[in-house]
Design brief:
Blueprint lengths: L22 E8 L8 E4 L10 H5 L2 E3 L2 E5 L5 E4 L1 H15 L6 H13 L12 E10 L11 E11 L10 E6 L23 H9 L4 E5 L7 E4 L2 E7 L2 E5 L9 H12 L4 E4 L3 H5 L3 E6 L3 E10 L2 E4 L7 H14 L10 E3 L2
Helix pairs in contact: 2-3
Length: 342
Amino acid sequence: MLEDAEPSIDWDALTFSFKQTDRMYLATCKQGDKWQPGQMQDFADLSMSPAAGVLNYGQGLFEGMKAQHAADGSIVLFRPNLNASRMQGGARRLGIPPVPERMFLDAVHAAVRENSRWVPPMGKGALYVRPLLLGSGAILGVAPAPEYTFLVYVSPVGPYFKGGIKPISLKVSDEFHRAAPGGSGGVKAIGNYAPGMIPSKMAKSEGYAEVIYLDAVHHRYVEEVGAANFFCVRDGVISTPELTGTILPGVTRASVIEIASSRGYEVREERIEVDYALDADECFCAGTAAVVASIGSIEHSGRVVEYGGGEVGPITMEMYEALTAIQQRRASDEFGWTVAVE
C-alpha cells in the first residue's frame, strides 16, 4: 500500500520547501458556535468563496511545528501545547473562535500519524506541521467571517538556512519595519508575513541570509530576524528582545531561555539597542524552522561587524546542541517537552 511505501526522496538533499504528503485534517465552525472535532482526509485543494474573510481581509492565523524521529525510535513533537495556546491567543486577537487545545493537539497527532512515512530519518530533517485557522465564510464589509476552517497539513523539510548551524550574514533594515505597537505583531497572523517578503528578497540579492528588523517607534531597538527571534551574548550574559506585543513569543525562544537559565546563565529579556548587539561577543537567532542559527556577521548603515571569525560561538553551540539533543531524545528531557506520537 502507498501508506506503507517509503517516499522516493533523497533525504540528504532535502530543502526547506513544500512537498505534498498523503493526508490532512479539516474542521469547520460557524461564528458563535463551538468547534466540533474534524476528520482526516486525503490531501486536497480547498474550495471557498471569493468573498471569504481570509481572502479579502486576511482574517487568518498559522502555526509552525516539527515532528521528527528520536533516538529511541519514536516520532516526537516538541512542546505542541505552546503552539495550541499561541494560536488561541491569536484567534482572540483576530476575532476568530479559538480552537480548543485538546482538539488542536489531536489534529496535530493525527496528521503526523497518518503521514508518518514522510518523517525523515533522524538528523536528515523533520516533518514540518502547519496548522491553519482561516475565516473561510463569505463576508462583504470589514467584520469577522461567518464561518471558519481549521486544518493541519504536513511536509518533510530540510534546514531553513543552508549550511545548518554554519554562521549566516544578516542586514539590519532601516527602511522597513515588521510591526508597530498596538498591531498584530505579537500573534502569528498571516498578514504579518507578506510585507517581509520584499525586504528579505532585497537582502538575499545582496548576499545576506535575512534581515534584522528594528522597532518602528525609535528605530534603534532590535526586534526580530525575519521569521526568527534574536539573541546576543555579551560578557556571558544572554539577551533577547522583550515581549512588548510587536514580536512573536516563539516556542524555541522560550525554550532557549529556559535551557540557558537552567545552566546558570543570566538571561535578560530587554530592549536591545542595535549598537549593543553590534558590540556583542555572539549573536544567534532561534525559531521552529531555524532551530538555533549562528549569526556570523551583521551589516548596519555601512558598518559590518563579524562575530567569532567565521566559527560558531561557544554559547550558541551549547544552546543548539542542548536543544536538539532534547528534541531528538538524545539527552534526558528534564523539562518534559517532547511528546511521542502514538
